[in-house]
């Protein structure tokens, strides 16, 4: 895959993935809200071998600019072949429980913004009959837990949307990849105590890169999360609701 749009390019997982594409000499278009961070990421990717790196600065919750972003990336790359959607926020669950406006903000960033972008990207790639759309969802979307069910609702909804989109675009030859990381040591989780289940962004990036090239459907990263979530999903509700998760 030679022409890739990276949305939320300052994310640790996105940057680590973009480095793998850069090492292959890919052409990249970066989107994010912080111009300085995008400039730093772009310089790093050029130094690592990217054939071209361009960028657009925007708040990804500004839906009115989504069309402009994808048109700019498509023009700059002379026909984008792949997109990785990586932006997200891990909001304060307690604040979201207390105030719906906070919850709505989380749902906007983690669910509605990706859906808006995917709608435009899907309608661009479907008639062309090829391409790959990869999105970072989360294991948090597999089952609602009291500690983060607002974030989990957004990611769960996103995973369902991606499932439907994959089903729709399969016949057109457009691949849709759902990435479900577990705990990743990134700025988003800087305040968490780390343990055995934690992964580095570089390890998740290898899975994302491989999944985009091979067109996998749903990827847990690391892979052991598939088993963990299988067990968590299998727990009967009368037991699950009593657990402190
Ligand atoms: N870390 C984990 O444990 C974990 C686990 C499962 C899934 N995920 C998901 O993985 C993805 C990448 O996260 P990460 O771990 O790489 O954390 P990260 O480095 O903190 O990345 C989060 C990114 O989202 C961007 N972002 C948030 N709101 C935005 C907005 N309104 N407009 C533009 N950009 C916005 C941030 O931009 P700024 O740099 O400008 O702040 C940042 O680049 C997210 O979707 C996250 O939900 C993370």
Q: Quick recap of the structure?
A:
By secondary structure, this protein is an alpha/beta fold. Helix content is 48%, strand content 18%.
The helix count comes to 9
User: In the CATH hierarchy, what is the superfamily?
Assistant: NAD(P)-binding Rossmann-like Domain
Backbone shape? globular
Structural class: alpha/beta
Please list the strands of the largest sheet in the order they lie side by side. Answer: 3-2-1-4-5-6-9
- Please state the average pLDDT score: 98
CATH class: Alpha Beta
Which percent bin holds the helix content? 40-55%
How many structural domains?
1
Would you kindly provide a written description of the structure presented here, covering whatever features stand out?
This protein has 245 residues and is an alpha/beta fold. It has one domain (3-240): Rossmann fold. The chain has 9 helices and 9 strands. The strands form 2 sheets. The chain has a 7-stranded parallel β-sheet with strand order 3-2-1-4-5-6-9, sandwiched between helices. It has a two-stranded parallel ribbon with strand order 7-8. Strand 2 (27-32), helix 2 and strand 3 form a beta-alpha-beta unit. The mean pLDDT is 98. NADP nicotinamide-adenine-dinucleotide phosphate binds at residues 8, 10-13, 32-34, 37, 59-61, 86-89, 109, 136, 138, 181, 183-184, 186-189, 201.
């Amino acid at each position: 895959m030679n022409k890739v749009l990276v949305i939320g390019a300052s994310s640790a997982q996105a940057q680590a993935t973009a480095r793998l594409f850069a090492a292959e000499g890919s052409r990249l278009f970066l989107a994010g809200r912080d111009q300085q961070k995008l400039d730093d990421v772009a310089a790093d990717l050029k130094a690592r071998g990217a054939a071209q790196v361009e960028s657009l600065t925007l708040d990804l919750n500004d839906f009115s600019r989504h069309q402009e972003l994808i048109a700019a990336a498509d023009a700059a790359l002379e026909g984008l072949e792949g997109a990785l959607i990586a932006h997200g926020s891990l909001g304060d669950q307690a604040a979201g429980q207390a105030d719906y406006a906070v919850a709505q903000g989380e749902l906007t960033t983690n669910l509605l913004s990706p859906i808006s972008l995917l709608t435009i990207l899907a309608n661009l790639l479907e008639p062309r009959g090829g391409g790959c759309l990869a999105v970072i969802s989360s294991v948090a979307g597999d089952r609602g837990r009291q500690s983060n069910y607002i974030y989990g609702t957004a990611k769960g909804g996103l995973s369902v949307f991606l499932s439907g989109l994959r089903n729709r675009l399969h016949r057109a030859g457009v691949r849709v990849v759902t990435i479900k990381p577990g705990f990743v040591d990134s700025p988003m989780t800087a305040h968490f105590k780390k343990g055995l289940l934690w992964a580095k962004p570089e390890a998740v990036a290898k899975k994302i890169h491989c999944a985009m090239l091979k067109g996998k459907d749903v990827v847990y990263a690391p892979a052991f999360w598939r088993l963990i979530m299988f067990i968590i999903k299998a727990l009967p509700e009368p037991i699950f609701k009593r657990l402190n998760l």
